[in-house]
Design brief:
Elements lengths: L19 E4 L5 H12 L3 E6 L2 H12 L6 E5 L8 H12 L4 E4 L14 H29 L2 E5 L12 H21 L5 E7 L5 H7 L3 H10 L8 H12 L10 E4 L8
Helix pairs in contact: 1-8, 3-4, 4-5
Length: 264
């Protein structure tokens, strides 16, 4: 077995020029920031969401004055039966996909005695089954482009977070999916990785902690860097894992958390 040859002079190993990136649930928050980062390094981006109005607003913001190469399509990741048709439609309209970022998600905050089985299943349908169905639908395109799949894991993949057992189970399942798919798809030239965000300063996080200073203090005590992350911190980590610079990286879950998992 021979090692691959060294990088030609002048190639931007951290860029995504010529890559087509699909990001689910990208009309706000981490998905939108990831789209912005991918566009900044030359990618063509297709974002999805469940509302055309939100997609239009997101695209207008992403394009700005630079006419960024971005498109949007309405798609609900829990519409499992539509995944194959959606993947074909994306390829027909915008070209084959080389990076799929499974970002869409939700959570339900309830203790186990209050969370119903159907609520537990609903959270897993988005994060796990929906992401699996879409990855399966795009796998032939990714094999042609020697592309990569990225998932959004979580601190809840590693830590025991109370009152979000559906979310914790789903995010933990994703880490297993990353390892399993990485081993299965590597012979086809497809890399599979995940980013596990720590506590990121988004409007959702702000609303969840605005009236709970004790929770904020507890979170801060877990972060050695003593600050919350930004959505772009996650976006740039995604760019790295999708880029040629990570060409020998697969089956990994990259914690972007200010040291929260490994800190004391």
């Amino acid at each position: 077995m021979q090692a691959t040859q060294s990088t030609p002079v002048g190639v931007n190993m951290f860029g995504l020029r010529g890559q087509h990136v699909v990001i689910t649930g990208a009309t706000s928050g981490l998905g939108l920031a990831t789209a912005r980062c991918c566009l900044a390094v030359g990618a063509k981006v297709t974002i999805t969401g469940t509302s055309q109005a939100k997609i239009d607003a997101a695209i207008e913001g992403l394009r700005g004055d630079k006419c960024a190469d971005v498109a949007g399509m309405v798609f609900d990741v829990t519409d499992f039966e539509r995944a194959e048709g959606f993947a074909a439609e994306v390829e027909r309209l915008h070209g084959p996909v080389s990076v799929l970022i499974n970002n869409a998600g939700r959570t339900i905050k309830k203790p186990i005695r209050e969370m119903t089985v159907s609520e537990f299943q609903a959270v897993n349908d988005i994060h796990v089954t929906g992401a699996y169905a879409l990855t399966r639908a795009f796998v032939d395109q990714l094999a042609k482009t020697h592309g990569s799949v990225l998932f959004v894991a979580s601190m809840a993949s590693f830590l025991g977070v109370p009152d979000v057992i559906g979310y914790t189970a789903a995010k933990s399942a994703l880490t297993g999916m990353v390892r399993g798919l990485a081993g299965e798809l590597a012979p086809e030239g497809i890399r599979v990785n995940a980013v596990a965000p720590g506590w990121i300063d988004t409007p959702l996080f702000q609303s969840a902690t605005a009236k709970d200073p004790a929770r904020v203090a507890k979170i801060n005590s877990r972060i050695p860097m003593k600050r919350f992350g930004t959505p772009e911190d996650i976006g740039w980590a995604m760019v790295y894992l999708a880029s040629p610079a990570a060409g020998y990286v697969t089956g990994q879950v990259l914690a972007v958390d200010g040291g929260a998992v490994s800190g004391f």
